[in-house]
Design goal:
273 residues, Glutaredoxin, 5-stranded mixed β-sheet, globular
Length: 273
C-alpha cells in the first residue's frame, strides 16, 4: 500500500464520528502503528517553547496567546505529499465561511513537525493560504512556525499528537486535527478530520474564549448545546434546555407579577364616583 493511500485512509478515518472511529481502530494498517492522537483536555501547553516565525525570528509559543482570544493550533509539514494539503484546504474552507478573521477574534498557529522546514517555506505557506482566504489582514493572525525536533516533539507530546518518520519513504506519518486552546494556553477542544463544520469551530472558539468573543446568541447556543464526542459536533443538551426553559418561565412569571402589582387591583365598574 502506498504512503498516499495510507494517509488518505487515515484522513478519512479521522473524519468519522467517534463511535465509528472506535470500531475501525483495529483495522488501521500496520504501517500506521504508533500514529494517532490522545486527548489531553485542559492540559497546559508548553508556552515557553521557542520556534522561528515566517521572518526567521525566534518566538515563544506563548506570545500568540493573549486575554480574550482563543488559539487554533495544528501540526503539519510543508512538504507533505497529500494529507497536510487536504487538511489545510479543508480548514481554509471553514475559515472562509466564518465571519471572524484570524487575528481579530482568534489566532491560528500552524507548526511544522519537520525540523528541516524553515522560515522560507513557512512564509510561502502563509502567503498562499492568506491569499486564498481573501482577507489580507489574516497575515497577522495566522502564523506558520518551524522549530527544532526537540521542541516540536515537546509540543506534540503535550497535545497528545503521535507521529513518526518513515525512513523508507522519507515521509512523516501523522493524524489530522485542530486543537482549540484557551487564551491562557490550555487545551479546550479537539476537532478531528480534514473537513470542519463552521458552526462547530465557532462554538469551540466561543467556549474556549471563556466569554471573550461571541454574540449573545452564541452564548445562548453554547448554554443549550454540548459537544458530542460521538458525533464530533455540538448538539442539544436536554437538561440544559429544560433548565433554560425553566429560567425563562420564572423570569416571565416574575415580570407578570411585578407589572400586575404596579397596576394595582382592578376597580369594579359602577364603583367610580
Amino acid at each position: 500500500m502506498t504512503t498516499r493511500a495510507l494517509l488518505l485512509i487515515l484522513g478519512m478515518t479521522l473524519a468519522l464520528p467517534g463511535a465509528a472511529l472506535t470500531q475501525l481502530t483495529e483495522s488501521v494498517p500496520a504501517e500506521l502503528e504508533g500514529v494517532g492522537i490522545t486527548e489531553h483536555l485542559d492540559a497546559a501547553l508548553p508556552l515557553e517553547l521557542t520556534f522561528r516565525d515566517e521572518a526567521g525570528q525566534i518566538v515563544a509559543l506563548g506570545q500568540y496567546f493573549e486575554e480574550g482570544r482563543p488559539v487554533v493550533l495544528n501540526l503539519v509539514y510543508f512538504n507533505c505529499p497529500m494529507m497536510c494539503n487536504v487538511f489545510l484546504d479543508g480548514f481554509l474552507m471553514t475559515l472562509s465561511e466564518l465571519d471572524w478573521t484570524p487575528g481579530d477574534e482568534f489566532r491560528v498557529v500552524t507548526v511544522s513537525i519537520d525540523p528541516t522546514d524553515g522560515p522560507e517555506g513557512a512564509r510561502a505557506k502563509r502567503d498562499h493560504y492568506v491569499k486564498r482566504l481573501g482577507r489580507p489582514e489574516a497575515e497577522h493572525g495566522w502564523h506558520f512556525l518551524t522549530g527544532s525536533e526537540e521542541n516540536v516533539h515537546a509540543l506534540a507530546d503535550a497535545i497528545g499528537f503521535a507521529y513518526r518518520y518513515d525512513e523508507e519513504r522519507k515521509e512523516y506519518l501523522h493524524s489530522a486535527a485542530l486543537y482549540v486552546a484557551t487564551p491562557a494556553g490550555r487545551l479546550s477542544r479537539y476537532l478531528y478530520g480534514v473537513m470542519f463544520e463552521p458552526a462547530t469551530l465557532r462554538l469551540s472558539l466561543v467556549e474556549a474564549s471563556e466569554g471573550g468573543i461571541g454574540s449573545a446568541m452564541d452564548q445562548l447556543l453554547l448554554f443549550c448545546f454540548a459537544y458530542d464526542h460521538t458525533e464530533g459536533r455540538y448538539g442539544p443538551a436536554a437538561l440544559k434546555i429544560v433548565r433554560a426553559f425553566g429560567a425563562l418561565t420564572a423570569i416571565g412569571l416574575g415580570l407578570f407579577i411585578v407589572l400586575h402589582r404596579r397596576r394595582g387591583p382592578a376597580v369594579p365598574t359602577g364603583a367610580r364616583s
